[in-house]
Protein: Anoctamin
Amino acid sequence: NGPRGPEPLAPWNVLCYYAEEISLRVPLQVVTTPISNWSEKILEKLHIPNIMAQDVPNLPPDYYTCQFHTNKLERFLGHENKDTFFKTTQRHQILYEILARTPYGSLKRGEVGIGRLVSEHVLTAAFPLHEINKYSNRCVAVTSFLSLSLMSVGFYTGWLLPAAVVGFIIFLFGIWLMVTDVAAEELCSSGNAFVMCPLCNICSYWNLSSICYTYKAGLLFDNGGTVFFSIFMSLWAVTFLEYWKRTSSILSHRWDCSEFEEIEERPRPEFTALAPMTVRNPVTGAEEPYFPETQRLSRTITGNMVIILMIAIVLIFLIAIILYRTILSIIIYRSQNRAFSPLYLFKQQQSILHFLLLEMHRTQTKYENAFILKVFIFQFVNFYSSPVYIAFFKGRFVGYPGNYNTLLGIRNEDCGASGCLIELAQELLVIMVGKQVISNIQEFVLPKLKPAPSQELIDEPDGQPDLSPWEANYQLLVCEGLFDEYLEMVLQFGFITIFVAACPLAPFFALINNWVEVRLDAQKFVCEYRRPVVERAQDIGIWLTILKFISYLAVISNAFLISFTSDFLPRLYYRYTTGSMRGYINFTLSVAPANFTQSYMTCRYRGLRDDKGQPTQDYYHLLAIRLSFVIIFEHVVLLIGRIIDWMVPDIPEEVEIKIKREHYMAKEALAENQVRQNIL
Structure:
């Protein structure tokens, strides 16, 4: 314990040596210039509350800093008091560096570091302690934070608010269309006018008017407003990422991480201890441990093969689910009970089945961006495979009556009677909302169910033992890092952007989930978890690249959704060619070929084909319109996105000035034969 409570105590000379060794930054002077932007100033002048502001209570002062050098100690702020010069988190870093790189056995067998000792159960645990003067009050503070009166949210959740508001307005517009849409009224009042062909080989004929309610429900998600919302969300994603880069630069400078990756970052202690050779760093000129590429190649290939195998398993499950849906639909239609809608129940069942069947555990890591990418690729295929299938493949290769295509002898799956878009919306809600609800329940309930580990080692006869700080901290759960939190938010970002044309309410549900989860996470990290060893990072790493990839993919996905899955372009084409929407339902239906129909009965099916099953002229006109829309949509949205990228600088001007000022002050403070001056 140190003089301020349960903090690491090490000799002063050891602290100084390793502080210089791991390039810790220490303060030179307090920053007195606040960072502001033009939007905050405008809102303040208009007396409008800034809902995007992140108010942090008891914010510590900001400092100009530079790398620590023992021979320049007197030039750093607070050097007079050796007990408080290094912060508690910096002491943690130094001691962890020592413990993690110290060998305890054979280097060839990798017997290095305290982490290996814990994994081999030589030690039960190794962790820093919560500070005594804050430990007793931290749960009280988080209880205040969890108050419903506080609207504190993170940067991403704050940006979800405008997206959720616009999406909810689009949803209300869909409700209005349910009442006023001409085509919907035409379908509902058609009676027996449109006899549809069977949906499977043993199914019976059915009337189109029987899907009146589901057709109207589809208008909630398939209307002209979703086109606007798709464009809005594509530009929202680009703007969000640009402003996140600005916020990231502000935070990285405040937390002394602006040059961490380029200059200050050192190899991991375990890597240092096991590396077979060293090479000179071209930037710093220092000798650093190094693993030859040939030795790393085998590990890389092995890791990639494992991910490929897991993705193959996921795709096999997806194909199995498709066959399951097709076979079960035949069984359902054998039933003569029409009092309820078994098909709708079946669709709900298959969505839940896909959600449960593909929920798998993954390995944890905090160090390798390559591993993060592999895990994301697996989870991307895991969660998005079924929505992608419904959006872009289901119902595309069915054929037509009398000439249906088959897979393994089974007729290819067609979209439901009300179309694929409403099925896609249902799939998104089941997977996205279901995953979020279950995740939040797990985060809240599971910590309560896990036994306190200290009870296995501490035997106190007294019913209320007086535990020491390290015993009390040992009772808490192990903090496994932020990997799961990042992955959850990135997957959510994909759901609300890639498929937003099918579900305008996705940002709204994401906002509600995050507003709840940020409070559950606060409770979890502050009250339930042990204190982790602090780690520095310049930014969110490869996660930003993944978010950019998703934002570009969202533009392409929404363009094809609107063009080929939605009814927006067929409606627009019909209105343009006829002047009204009267007769639109009849326009979208074709008459089955004569060799398919039984006796005198004729039936209809969705498609633009003639009585011989060949595509009509309208089909080719509409196909040209669809492809043109995809090209125009992509180019316009991406062009506007590039303009936004160009207009919004990644680093605010105030931060650039502070960085230059800091470099100047560091140069002055560390210069030889320089008399310390009062810079300001």
Notes: The chain has a mean pLDDT of 77. The chain is about 55% helix and 5% strand. The two ends are 38 Å apart (CA to CA). The first helix runs from residue 12 to 21.
